[in-house]
Amino acid sequence: MHELSIATSIVETVTESAAAYPGARVIEVRLRLGALASVVEDSLQFCWELASEGSPIAGALLVINKLPVIVHCDPCDADSEIEGVQSFRCPRCGELATGLRQGRELEIESIELDEPETGARGNDTPDPAEKQI
Amino acid sequence: MTTRIVELRRGILKKNDALAAALRQRFTSAGVLVLNLVSSPGTGKTAFLERTLRDLRSRGARAAALVGDLETDNDARRLAASGAPVRQINTHGICHLDAEMVTKHLEGWEGVSLAALDYLFIENVGNLVCPSSYDLGERIRVALLSVTEGEDKPLKYPGLFNSSDAAVITKIDLVDPCGFDRELALKNVNEIRPGIRIFETSAKTGAGMEDWITYLTEQAQPS
Predict the structure, then answer these.
(1) pTM of whole model > 0.80?
(2) Do B129 and A2 touch (CB under 8 A)?
């Protein structure tokens, strides 16, 4: 049950990041969550409401993008996605694969903001990582 | 209103990760080998650690332990009987240790200086889920399971076993009464964490401790 600590960390990080956009409202927070991250999705959603309530980002939707495990097989010299998390075998050759390429991610991918039309952001230079839609 | 997407690509536990990285740096420059012991409640982490501390000390090694529990200092008192410096961390309800708790408990630890230690063991709160997300700056994460828990623990908790560097099967003296299938347990650990070092031990009889202590000694050698 560390989902509450995780939800609280997300609220803190997003609140800090969103402060660079005065007047904007965070409507969505997107996470990348590896299959091995030991985080229960339902529990995190439940804690998200508790943690974000009363914060500047209250009401924002939490969208969880689950990532499968990708292993690296040395003999095949290939990365492959595996099904589930019960056997870390290379699906090509069937041997146990010692390398892990994906699966432990626990990160905030992006946030979506609603912001007032022109002028509200002053003279800020737009961050190259942003895109307007 | 316009909609804007801001890419963050930020680790959710970045504060913990940064503190853990600072700890790792400190441990490395002090030349102390740090291990994080993780298991469910009742696996026998404390008995295993008690035996490890005693065996290491009898060989002249300098070892200390930080021990995490929700409440009580029972484990610290038990471990202190080994003669090693031990400090209790009470999390008061939190289900795992984090790098901040470790940092705080290293401060003002009377009579203990990292540079004067060969080994520091951190016994995590009994839990096979949450501790796997929190880096404590350790060099070796050890997942423990006891024969009384069944052979399929690694399959049930792949997150922890997959992120561990060594696995210890405890209470090996109870294999027969429990009808524990050793081969199956070893296979299950290996399916989740291929190639991991596995130790089969009994803190009660001392079985397997020799191999474990040899491994610790090897790992403590400066590379």
Answers:
(1) yes
(2) yes
- Look at residue A98 and give its three-state secondary structure: coil
| pLDDT tens string B184-194 | 999 999 999 99
Contact flag A111-B8 (C-beta cutoff 8 Å): yes
Q: Which of A46, A55, A64 is nearest to A18 (CA)?
A: A55
Beta carbons of B182 and B200 less than 8 angstroms apart = yes
Residues of chain B positioned with their CB less than 8 A from the CB of A4: none
Nearest CB to A107; choose among B1, B5, B10: B10
The answer for residues whose C-beta is within 8 angstroms of residue B170's C-beta and 6 or more apart is B39, B43, B44, B45, B47, B48, B144, B145, B146, B147, B201, B202, B203
- The distance of B24 to chain A (nearest Cα, Å) reads 20
| Chain A partners within 8 Å of B92 (Cβ) | none
Angle between helices A3-18 and A41-52 (to 10 degrees): 50
What is the least distance, in Å, from the CA of B60 to any CA of chain A? 36
- For A20-65, what is each residue's pLDDT tens digit? 999 999 999 999 999 999 899 999 999 999 999 999 999 999 999 9
Q: B196: which chain A residues are within 8 Å (Cβ-Cβ)?
A: none
Encode chain B in three state secondary structure.
CEEEEEEEEEECCHHHHHHHHHHHHHHHHHCCEEEEEECCCCCCHHHHHHHHHHHHHHCCCCEEEEEEECCCCHHHHHHHCCCCCEEEEECCCCCCCCHHHHHHHHCCCCCCCHHHCCEEEEECCCCCCHHHHCCCCCCEEEEEEEHHHCCCHHHHCHHHHHCCCEEEEECHHHHHHHCCCHHHHHHHHHHHCCCCEEEECCCCCCCCHHHHHHHHHHHHCCC
> What value of ipTM does the predicted structure carry?
0.84
Report chain A residues whose CB lies below 8 A from the CB of B124: none
User: Does residue A108 contact residue B8 with C-beta atoms inside 8 Å?
Assistant: yes
| A117: nearest CB among B1, B130, B134 | B1
Which of A3, A4, A5, A47 is the best residue to mutate to test the B interface, defined by the most B CB atoms within 10 Å of its own CB? Answer: A5
